């Protein structure tokens, strides 16, 4: 976010983490176009198309987006860079819908043990995933709203697979070509609400649709020679609670993307959660979170997604139980 005349404005930036600064790509492209003879008004119009406020819309431009970003940053990045200090981070992407998988073997086993559930045989038949609300996506350093009637809050350490090209009825053999990059995905969970929702059998709703952390930024897929050895860790209030990597998958990322695309349309900028790494949630460790706790998820090659838990909501309406009808 940058400060505009009418308040904060979202900008797509190239992040230089080793220098603790970002390049405002729209501003850099305006300077580049002006150096080539464009008027300021025309340069602004062009730059706003290539670098709109929506990251998903930018990704949909394909290679033109990446090529222009590199050229603008190379030529004018130093003139329009901003330090990390004082920045307000928006979510790294604005997916059309949230999708979250279930692929890490160790987490599947430990989660079911803690919830006193027996893993369904269907887990071995198809890659499981659920759909969530895109309207509750939050970014790096954003406060996590504590949902109504929740006593047991949890984080979930995941990789966010960012889609670069639309996908429909694809196969695992071609799925990798549809990947744009990698981000961090925190599937915050209200565990006590989740137990009731499991009993209904229609998937999670209020136990999930209050906050999905995505950020701090996206690393393009070409930066990862392999996707099955990415280091992952989580810290709460500075203490390491879990460490691991992206191996030991029941279903590969290629299979997950292909399955999601069957009969459906995956859009550029959509984010598919990998599922939680083993020991990547407080539930698996028998630990719990409190309001004010700071959760940091770290993924090698990406960075750290940091969020503070807000205070418990009070006075929110909640439905009254109904009398049995069976």
From TrEMBL:
UniProtKB keywords: Hydrolase
Xref: InterPro entries: Fumarylacetoacetase-like_C (IPR011234), Fumarylacetoacetase_C_sf (IPR036663)
Statement: the UniProt record of this protein carries the keyword Hydrolase: yes
GO molecular function, one term: hydrolase activity
Fumarylacetoacetase-like C-terminal domain ranges (all copies): 97-309
Gene3D superfamilies noted in UniProt: Fumarylacetoacetase-like, C-terminal domain
Protein name: Fumarylacetoacetate hydrolase family protein
UniProt organism field: Variovorax ginsengisoli
């Amino acid at each position: 976010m940058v400060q505009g005349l009418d308040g904060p404005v979202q900008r797509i930036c190239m992040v230089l983490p080793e220098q603790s600064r970002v390049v405002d790509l729209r501003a850099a492209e305006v300077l580049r176009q002006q150096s080539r003879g464009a008027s300021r008004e025309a340069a602004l119009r062009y730059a706003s198309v290539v670098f709109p406020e929506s990251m998903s819309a930018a990704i949909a431009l394909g290679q033109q987006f990446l090529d222009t970003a590199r050229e603008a940053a190379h030529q004018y990045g130093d003139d329009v860079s901003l330090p990390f200090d004082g920045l307000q981070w928006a979510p790294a992407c604005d997916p059309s819908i949230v999708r979250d998988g279930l692929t890490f073997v160790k987490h599947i086993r430990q989660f079911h043990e803690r919830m006193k559930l027996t893993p369904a045989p269907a887990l071995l038949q198809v890659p499981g995933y659920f759909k969530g609300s895109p309207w509750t996506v939050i970014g790096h350093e954003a406060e996590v709203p504590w949902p109504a009637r929740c006593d047991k809050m949890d984080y979930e350490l995941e990789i966010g697979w960012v889609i670069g090209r639309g996908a429909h009825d694809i196969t695992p053999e071609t799925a990798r070509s549809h990947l744009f990059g990698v981000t961090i995905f925190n599937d915050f969970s209200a565990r006590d609400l989740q137990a009731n929702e499991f009993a209904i059998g229609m998937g999670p709703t209020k136990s999930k649709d209050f906050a999905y952390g995505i950020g701090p930024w996206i690393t393009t897929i070409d930066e990862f020679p392999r996707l099955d050895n990415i280091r992952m860790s989580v810290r709460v209030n500075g203490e390491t609670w879990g460490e691991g990597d992206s191996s030991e998958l029941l279903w590969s990322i290629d299979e997950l993307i292909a399955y999601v695309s069957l009969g459906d349309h995956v859009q550029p900028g959509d984010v598919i959660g990998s599922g939680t790494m083993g020991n990547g949630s407080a539930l698996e460790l028998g630990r719990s979170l409190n309001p004010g706790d700071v959760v940091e998820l770290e993924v090698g090659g990406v960075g750290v997604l940091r969020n503070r838990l807000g205070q418990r909501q009070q006075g929110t309406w909640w439905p009254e139980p109904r009398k049995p009808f069976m």
